[in-house]
Amino acid sequence: MEQILGDCHDLSILPWQYGPDMSRSAVSFYFDTIVMNKQVNYMKSVLQDMVFHEVGPGTEVTTESIIHFFEQKGVNAQSAELVSNLDAAVNRVLDGYVVILYDGWNKALCFPATGVETRQISEPVNEAVVQGPRESTVENLKKNIALLRIRLKSAKLKLVTLEGGGETRTTIAYLYLKGVIHEELLAEFKRRIVRVKELDIMETSYIEELIQDSLYSPFPQYRITERPDVAVASLIDGKIVVLSQGSGSMLICPGLFVEMLQASEDYYQRTLGATLIRWVRIVAFFLALTLPSIYIALTTFHPEMIPTVLLLAILDAREGIPFPAFVEALIMEFFFELLREAGIRLPRPVGSAVSIVGALVIGEAAINAGIASPIMVVMVALTGIASFSIPQYNMAIALRIMRFPMMVMASFMGGFGILFGLLVILWHMMTLRTLGQQYISTMHWSGPQQLLNVFIRAPIQYLNRASHRKQGTGQTPQPNE
């Protein structure tokens, strides 16, 4: 143990002497940086109680009596265990256990004593709501599972844990509702999830990349959430929820396209308001994808489609601009993305101020310098606002990626280029699969109630969740190529 765990100044090695003449030897190992002293004291009191009450106050405490007690009667301390392998004992020390070795016994007694402080449950940072639950997941796996179980009190809820590979050996867990999830979907997920045993897993997003169907698709194929209510709703819909130790994000498998434009608050608001907001998001999706390219196509190739008064205003605003519309849009989009990234990376108190003030200052300076027209600044600002309204951040990133090819197509072929780009995106979405299921499968006609819940938020009493529980029926998952 000293050879394997040497050169660690936080490793505590405590020799023990016991027996009537203190001739018996034992030693304990633990890292004092991840073990709580009160847990060590609790472990000592448990051992004393075991020896006094179980071995007997009048019995000589020997190695043989201790071995007989632990091997015949077991370990009655919570979560304690016996290991008979040196590697297993080392791993328990690294996991935050106190490991005790007795001279003359080929097994190690391991007590959990981890005492690392974690973030307390608070409001979600990335999925804030006006109305609804305000609990968020944290970086503790057991707490996150408890948040799900307290909401979904069903015997059908099954939990499977496994250990990642590499040096981290991160604990990973996934949950599903037995009898609700499609069996072929679950079998395909189990076939892919074993890959986590080969690599170091630092965060839940690592798992997403390991099990996704298309590695280079711009579209996210799984949903990321930090809200327990969203995860529970997904479990009821027949999805799989994946968690990992040390991560405050949960992975929902599979993630379909229409779900990327829906938010949990849709079901906490009244039907009319939620439906209106859902349509606003759909419009925002197309604006974030095509607004700069539409401006480029109209001003470069199709000026006859612009009303005369608006066309004159655009021509007057663009007078003196040395760049064509495409280069002008490319420059402004680049600086907008730069400001957005700077606002994220800067400390929170100054990040939002820098991004907002920077956008105003640079936009005004670009107009005064004759680099960009006012209407181009408006177009870029509207595009950014539209992308901010997308509930899933990874879907907003996909729109940021696809926006630039759409601008290139519009600069070469105008409106026909935009149409060609949209057809290519639609073709890709039609062929894309997520965990073997078609990415836009919920948009297929499988009943009026399912289609109703895609485009509008139907009243709760008329929603038939059972139609979602067998998503992908008749679709055989295909291996990831």
From TrEMBL:
<dbReference type="InterPro" id="IPR004995">
    <property type="entry name" value="Spore_Ger"/>
</dbReference>
<keyword id="KW-1133">Transmembrane helix</keyword>
<dbReference type="Pfam" id="PF03323">
    <property type="entry name" value="GerA"/>
</dbReference>
<feature type="transmembrane region" description="Helical">
    <location>
        <begin position="406"/>
        <end position="430"/>
    </location>
</feature>
<keyword id="KW-0472">Membrane</keyword>
<keyword id="KW-0812">Transmembrane</keyword>
<feature type="transmembrane region" description="Helical">
    <location>
        <begin position="279"/>
        <end position="301"/>
    </location>
</feature>
<feature type="transmembrane region" description="Helical">
    <location>
        <begin position="375"/>
        <end position="394"/>
    </location>
</feature>
<dbReference type="InterPro" id="IPR050768">
    <property type="entry name" value="UPF0353/GerABKA_families"/>
</dbReference>
<protein>
    <submittedName>
        <fullName>Spore germination protein B1</fullName>
    </submittedName>
</protein>
<comment type="similarity">
    <text>Belongs to the GerABKA family.</text>
</comment>
